[in-house]
Specification:
By secondary structure, this protein is mainly α. Helix content is 36%, strand content 8%. The protein has one domain (11-97). The chain has 3 helices and 2 strands. The chain has a two-stranded parallel sheet. It is elongated.
């Protein structure tokens, strides 16, 4: 609820949702997985070595995606009135899948 008593929706009730995907090459982790070929192409999972030897690369990839997409989106949608007008124009749910 905001200062004017306006209720905020829960995340799953939002009109606009974004799924962050990675650009970090993880083929060496998915190459030998025995699963459906389409599952090997999933870009919203980051594989971390058992002792974290690739952790800095994974964190950097997630951080870069967040800074590029989420912060950019936040700055564009900071004006609550304009964002509410845009949301009211949408019919149903819109799911944006952001690919790098």
């Amino acid at each position: 609820m905001d200062e004017n008593g306006l209720l905020y929706p829960k995340e799953y009730e939002c009109n606009r949702r974004v799924k962050l995907t990675g650009s970090y090459d993880q083929f060496k982790y998915t190459e030998y997985i025995k699963c459906n070929i389409s599952e090997k192409k999933i870009r919203d999972i980051w594989w971390v070595e058992p002792f974290g030897s690739n952790l800095s690369e994974v964190i950097n990839d997630i951080n870069n995606g967040f800074l590029y997409y989420a912060v950019k989106w936040y700055k564009e949608k900071s004006n609550k009135e304009l964002t509410m007008q845009e949301a009211e124009k949408l019919n149903g749910f819109l799911f944006e899948n952001i690919e790098k």
